[in-house]
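User: Sequence in, structure out. Go.
Assistant: Echoing your sequence, followed by the structure tokens.
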Amino acid sequence: MPVRCTCGALLPEDARFCHKCGKPQYEEDIARADAPEPPSAFALPSSKPAVPRVSFGDSRALWVSLAIACLAFFGLFLTSYIAPPLVPLVFCAAGFAAALVYSGHSVEPLSVRSGARLGWMTGLWVFLFLVIISALMSVYIADPGIREQMKALPNVARMPEMVKLLDNPHQFVMNLAGALVVAFFMVTILAGLGGMLGAKLQNRRHSS
């Protein structure tokens, strides 16, 4: 006796599948159709690229940021002596260079967010170097002989305010601590912006 499929098609008695909708009619065929297919041994790997994750746990990001920070630290002293108004550009250039160096050794392009993080890391290293130098200055400034030598420096002698501070070591240290707080935000933010610019530039090169 003919039977009907759930779609309404009239089927012969021995039909295993519906000629209209293809639905299996036997229990073993239904169970086989509902069973999940095993993963193929020849399945192609995901084509989605792995985006580099920049952090202190990434050894390459750590060493790139540290190396660029060392160069930027020496560039900072040179720029502050030759052209002090250009000092902020040194911090921005440090983040920019770190992003370029990191991307140059990476298969995948560096995202803008990762570039900013890498620049921030570079700026943090520069700031830590400044803290070390400031701590040493705070120790040596307590020696009257060293204070007199510093006041005799041509750049210091032209700044009466600095000479006055050197005569008051406690006030000098307090002003230095306040300057470090401002320097932290300035160095890390500018270096982060430089890292963003470097990542954008590298992304354009990859896309072209």
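User: And one key feature?
Assistant: The mean pLDDT is 79.
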